[in-house]
Amino acid sequence: MLPKFDFNKIKFATDSTTFEKAVDLYEHRKVKNFREGIGAYSAIVEGGKNYNVSIEARRFGLGHCDCYLGQNNYLCKHIVALSIYAALGGKPIMPEDKKLNSETQCSGRLGELSKIELAEIKKSISSAIKYIKPYNGPSRIWFDYQASLSEGCNRLSAIVSSLPVSEQTAGLIIKMLLRLDKKLCSGGVDDSDGAVGGFMRGCVEVLGDFVKLNKKCVNTFELLCEQSTCFGWEEPLVRMFDELC
Fold this sequence. Notes:
Elements: H1 7-12, H2 16-27, E1 31-36, E2 40-46, E3 50-56, E4 63-65, H3 68-71, H4 77-88, H5 115-129, H6 142-162, H7 167-186, H8 195-213, H9 235-244
Antiparallel strand pairs: 1-2, 2-3, 3-4
Helix pairs in contact: 2-4, 5-6, 6-8, 7-8
């Protein structure tokens, strides 16, 4: 029986510290006595002591661990380690998947995407943006909602960090930022914790790095001129456009 979540879901829906600790547990074979139940999995996960862990197959994050964090309803490294085992079945994790870099970075690689690659990236961006949705529920789902925003930003961060540097990809990032801005301004997104705004500011820094590597990227910033945004994230890019064009 396979769970209804995959490794990417685990990776992008977990904070980087917990994820990396869980990967370490998994790779050092600390998940013992793995068992499949009816719509669930259980195991002993070795840590400071042996912890009894169980998770549900229908959704990542639903489970129980008798460690301190687990008993207080936090997503602990033991639950995440068992989730990785359920998703991968003990298979090795690829080196590039072992760390979650939640900070958006410039790849430093010049180049353009092919038509097929561009279409796939656009599809991936649209899929990730779906996690950044309006908040219209009761207060009891607040933390789950904020986790969804963080997951969307983590997914988008991985996409942006993988892009080659060119006018084409700079324009792609600008259009993505404008989509996110619309969600913040009029789409009902409640970014009280600042996850989306922080991601957007990180993208602005990446675009600045793009211009250092390829000055033609600044041409795409014209899209931002005379734009009215939520919190002025575009201002450094508009100034750069005015100075260089």
